[in-house]
Automatic annotation (TrEMBL):
Mode of membrane association: Multi-pass membrane protein
NCBIfam families: cobal_cbiB, PRK01209.1-4
Membrane-crossing segments per the record: 304-324
Location, primary (coarse class): membrane
Compartment(s): Cell membrane
Protein name, per record: Cobalamin biosynthesis protein CobD
Organism whose genome encodes this protein: Kineosporia mesophila
Keywords, ordered alphabetically: Cell membrane, Cobalamin biosynthesis, Membrane, Transmembrane, Transmembrane helix
The protein's role, per its UniProt record: Converts cobyric acid to cobinamide by the addition of aminopropanol on the F carboxylic group.
InterPro entries cross-referenced by the UniProt entry: Cobalamin_biosynth_CobD/CbiB
Organismal lineage: Bacteria, Bacillati, Actinomycetota, Actinomycetes, Kineosporiales
Pathway per the UniProt entry: Cofactor biosynthesis; adenosylcobalamin biosynthesis
Length: 332
């Protein structure tokens, strides 16, 4: 059997696995107990205790081991499934389901909307901690709504589009490696006295692996604007104008496009771990997000996730078809 034929078949299996993983997330969401990401996080926490020194070198070692070992493990399992398409599709589906968080993200957004609609500000403050690291203790409903819209926009990339992108590009190893990197960044990648140096490598690697997915998220957000009664033209204009105003090279892509799609203004003053950050505004002279915009942001994220699943799985199907035609042409 030629290598081209094997590639065509393997790509078809990968596409099937991605589709099954997306369906599993839609039906079941994240496991309530024993989530593999939580298990990984506990292991990574113990690894940090062993390796921690306030230096970039130790942080680089931590990032290499923390992301490299799960990636190698997933690649090894994938290789063991060679010649067994059902097992390989199942592994891809399991890895994709493990990494996806779209259903849970939408649920958290809907819970936040309900809390704000019913005037339950203390509950909304607690719910915000499920979405981001921002200090919610003094936030009132308008700022809670803004924080939620911004978090939903960014997390749609991190928890939905990026896992699908890396599953399409590199199968189980790609999606597991991505989730490992993203989790390490969430654990040590923010600037604090403890992690300023140690977390540098994890944060930079996370920036790199999200460069393309964040921009894909932005394009899909622009396309999804009409679903939330927005303008794709306006979303495109705001994204092009404001995408590089955010301190993150990737979060700004998602937040700027979401601001344009929803017709709201994002950015401003945020508090993280007692540190105050003032961020440039995205969305220009648009209004501040209201409580109703939280539900619109949930719908926007769901549409972006659905489009991402179609685009990523579809791209793998097209690649399989092209590889198959190449094999037939070579045989002729």
């Amino acid at each position: 059997m030629s290598s081209v034929q094997t590639t065509s078949r393997d790509l078809g299996v990968r596409a099937a696995g991605i589709a099954i993983g997306v369906l599993a997330d839609a039906v079941f969401g994240d496991p309530r107990r024993g989530h593999p990401v939580a298990v990984f996080g506990a292991w990574a926490g113990r690894l940090e205790q062993r390796l921690y020194r306030p230096t970039r070198a130790r942080g680089a070692l931590y990032a290499a081991l923390g992301a490299g070992l799960p990636t190698l493990g997933a690649a090894g399992l994938d290789r063991c499934c060679t010649g067994r398409p059902v097992a390989r599709a199942g592994l891809t589906a399991l890895a994709t389901w493990t990494a996806l968080g779209g259903t849970s993200l939408a649920r958290e957004g809907a819970r936040m909307a309900t809390a704000l609609e019913n005037g339950r500000t203390p509950q909304a403050r607690e719910l915000l901690t499920h979405l981001c690291a921002r200090d919610p203790s003094r936030l009132e409903p308008p700022e809670l709504a803004r924080a939620t819209v911004e978090s939903l926009a960014e997390n749609t990339s991190d928890a939905v589009v990026a896992p699908l992108f890396w599953a399409a590009v590199a199968g189980p190893a790609g999606v597991i490696g991505y989730r490992a990197v993203n989790t390490l960044d969430a654990m040590v990648g923010y600037r604090s006295e403890r992690y300023e140096q140690f977390g540098w490598a994890a944060a930079r690697v996370d920036d790199v692996v999200n460069l393309l997915p964040s921009r894909l998220t932005a394009v899909l957000t622009v396309a999804s604007a009409p679903v939330v009664r927005g303008s794709s033209a306006r979303a495109w204009a705001v994204w092009r104008r404001d995408r590089n105003r955010h301190p993150s090279p990737n979060a700004g892509q998602c937040e700027a496009s979401a601001a344009g799609a929803l017709g709201v203004r994002l950015g401003g003053t945020n508090v993280y771990g007692g540190e105050v950050e003032s961020r440039p505004v995205m969305g220009g002279d648009e209004r501040l997000p209201g409580i109703a915009d939280v539900r619109r942001a949930v719908r926007l994220g769901q549409c972006v996730g659905a489009l991402a699943a179609v685009v990523c799985a579809g791209a793998v199907v097209v690649a399989a078809a092209v590889a198959g035609r190449g094999q037939k042409g070579g045989a002729a």
